[in-house]
Specification:
36% of the residues lie in helices and 23% in strands. The chain is α+β, with helices and mostly antiparallel strands and 316 residues long. The chain is globular. It starts with a helix and ends with a strand. It has two domains: 167 residues, no CATH class; 129 residues, no CATH class. α1 crosses α2.
Length: 316
């Protein structure tokens, strides 16, 4: 049965095939063979004909504004354009682009992050040994943080040894979720006090170190949302003969925290972080399995973005 992960991979393949179809009339296109591409193709082939059709419609819908924003895809010469699907390990290293579009003759490259019916940015874990500060910002967490979380994970280890299920823990909010969120919140504030670039590094960790376009397929509304995360000005560039049909603009990263506290609508398990430049991030803590284990996951979402972030809603 298809899963969120397999459907996401299948959509990556659909995006590559849609790009091949719309670019080929203008210039030669070559898809780079890789295990990541073969995996995506196999998941796509396992879908029903109707699901494949929807994915191709959604991918073509996303390709339409992309071609208008990036004239280098179709113009400026007749050299070969390359398409590839990146391995998941690149995302761990901070490159969230799933699909790359390259022209080696002019040393040009852009990328797509593709999502199937969700907007989650990361699903990072917390445990007694994970140094989220080092992983996210390159700044190690303090001894105070580890002292604060030690009793929480000791308790979870004891409950795991007893074979407990999360649903059988009526005190999980008071003994696990809230104290862990308090420790996480205090440590992020401490790290920010010692380094002014924590807000920008947080966004780069969540969204990506490279500029990219995001394609989000929304089945319920039969549309594809296209966003342009152009932090460094590498996207939406013209050719020697023409300019893009529209200007996506450059989006600024944040450099300060404005507010950090519990989300009003989910105070038991979710923190809301408001940054300048109109960025907002939510951190929802949750158990990742039915059995108790000494680690928890975040569902991290970028819930607020700058007003000048280019966004197109394309129906299919």
């Amino acid at each position: 049965m298809p899963t969120q992960t397999s459907n996401g991979k299948a959509f990556e393949y659909a995006c590559v095939e849609a790009l091949v179809a719309v670019i080929s009339p203008f210039r030669p296109v070559h898809v780079i063979a890789s295990s990541a591409f073969e995996t995506a193709r196999s998941f796509f082939n396992e879908l029903s004909i109707e699901e494949q059709r929807k994915m191709m419609l959604a991918a073509r819908a996303g390709a339409a504004p992309l071609l208008k924003a990036e004239p280098k895809i179709t113009e400026d010469g007749d050299d070969e354009l390359l398409l590839s699907i990146q391995a998941d390990r690149e995302g761990i290293a901070g490159d969230v682009r799933d699909v790359l579009i390259l022209r080696r003759s002019i040393h040009w490259e852009i990328g797509l992050s593709v999502k199937n019916n969700h907007f989650a940015a990361k699903h990072s874990r917390l445990s007694r040994t994970i140094d989220f500060g080092k992983d996210w910002f390159g700044l190690s967490c303090s001894s105070e943080y580890y002292e604060e979380i030690e009793p929480i994970f000791k308790y979870l280890k004891e409950e795991q040894s007893a074979g407990k299920l999360w649903r059988d823990m009526p005190d999980k909010v008071q003994r696990v979720y809230r104290p862990l969120l308090e420790a996480f919140k205090a440590e992020l504030v401490r790290l920010n006090t010692g380094s002014s670039d924590v807000p920008s590094k947080l966004l780069e960790y969540l969204i990506g170190r490279y500029d990219f376009y995001k394609f989000v397929k929304i089945d319920a509304e039969q549309k594809t949302i296209v966003q342009c995360y152009n932090f460094h000005g590498t996207l939406n560039t013209g050719t020697k003969d023409s300019k893009p049909d529209f200007n996506t603009g450059v989006v600024k990263l944040p450099d300060s925290i404005r507010y950090f506290d519990y989300l009003d609508t989910a105070p038991d398990n979710t923190l809301e972080l408001m940054l300048n430049q109109n960025w907002t991030v939510t951190f929802r803590i949750h158990n990742a399995s039915s059995l108790v284990e000494p680690s928890l996951k975040f569902d991290i979402r970028v819930s607020g973005v700058p007003s000048n972030l280019f966004t197109a809603h394309v129906g299919w």
